[in-house]
Design a protein that fits this description.
The protein is an alpha/beta fold. It is built from 9 helices and 12 strands. Strands 3-2-1-4-7 form a 5-stranded mixed β-sheet, with helices on both faces. It has a 5-stranded mixed β-sheet with strand order 10-9-8-11-12, sandwiched between helices. The protein has a two-stranded antiparallel ribbon with strand order 5-6.
């Protein structure tokens, strides 16, 4: 297994050429996506399954194996030189295991070993999904050209990853930048991770919807009570819906300000389903960030929407895998 302790440079013009591909997996609490990706970040083949997150670990792995099975059956598989995995975390890249907070059947699950049972002796690079997002946005998206960035995914959960001094910084276990489990409300609600007042517990999509419901908001007839529905209500002028997004924005701003203070990031890039709310989220986020990031070296951080959409996890897993191939050959 490729070590993730060192900084990884995302794939660039020096990435493997000659038609080589990597197989990428993006594993989250909602979906398991796979793709074959080339050195320019193009997705040449895809596979997708819903995550059976409430089921046991073997059932979840069976869904991963189905995705991999479709990829290995593709004629382009013969050009695959490595496998990249971006997984909901925490992950332990040094041991190849994952323990996603939102997939309770996986605790210390040997994901790299199980993936190798399907893919054979290819090098496998495991990162947290937030680190994968950072790799993607720095390689092909909104963080391109920035040497110091925090890239975040705000969806079913909240994850993040750092680019520092121009290189991806996954940390020793692949979890660096896991902003979703920074506590920003010391007496706040209990998070499934065991702490209180985590960014994820306040800003994730399900928690935005939960808070709006608790305060009296109701979706329209026939509409599911999702963060997307709350965002639509907020745009239509519903004060409860707007307040729920403002609370999420405040939590995100506090986490971003902490990151900017610690490592002097230049930009925070935010993707994921919740970011699709647009200015319903970004306007209050920028307002709160001005209040939290007050020191001169932190106050200039820019907040930008991610550019790669739902493909970011796959592109990032591929970028990290290409980096692993380069290190192995160097």
């Amino acid at each position: 297994m490729q070590s993730e302790g060192a900084a990884v440079r995302p794939a660039t013009a020096e990435a493997p050429s000659g038609g080589r591909l990597v197989a990428a997996l993006d594993i989250g609490g909602t979906k398991i996506a796979g793709a074959l990706v080339d050195g320019e970040g193009r997705l040449l083949a895809r596979s997708l399954r819903p995550t059976p997150a409430a089921q046991d670990g073997a059932t979840v792995m069976a869904a991963v194996a189905e995705v991999l099975g479709e990829l290995t059956a593709d004629p382009a598989w013969v050009r695959v030189t490595a496998v990249g995995i971006g997984s909901a975390g925490p992950v332990d890249a040094s041991h190849g295991t994952v323990s996603p907070v939102n997939v309770p059947g996986w605790r210390g699950f040997p994901l790299v070993e199980r993936v190798r049972e399907v893919t054979g002796p290819l090098p496998v690079t495991l990162t947290g999904d937030g680190v994968a997002i950072a790799a993607a946005e720095h390689w092909q998206g909104a963080a391109r050209g920035y040497d110091n960035a925090l890239c975040m995914v705000v969806s079913t959960g909240v994850g993040g990853g750092f680019v520092l001094n121009g290189a991806l910084h996954p940390g020793p276990t692949g979890n660096a930048g896991h902003i979703g489990h920074i506590s920003v409300d010391l007496d706040g609600p209990l998070c499934p991770c065991g702490a209180r007042g985590c960014v994820e517990r306040l800003a994730s999509g399900p928690n935005i919807a939960r808070r709006a419901l608790e305060n009296g908001w109701r979706p329209q007839a026939g509409q599911e009570p999702t963060a997307e529905a709350v965002a639509a209500a907020a745009r239509a002028g519903d004060p409860v819906a707007a307040a729920s997004f403002a609370r999420a924005a405040q939590a995100l701003a506090a986490g971003i300000a902490a990151a900017a203070t610690l490592v002097e990031i230049e930009v925070a890039v935010i993707g994921g389903g919740v970011a699709g709310a647009g200015e319903v989220l970004f306007a209050p986020l920028r307002d709160h960030l001005r209040a939290y990031a007050t020191l001169s070296f932190a106050s200039g951080v820019r907040v930008l929407p991610a550019q790669l959409g739902t493909d970011a996890g796959l592109v990032g897993a591929a970028a990290a895998a290409f980096g692993g191939v380069l290190r192995a050959r160097g």
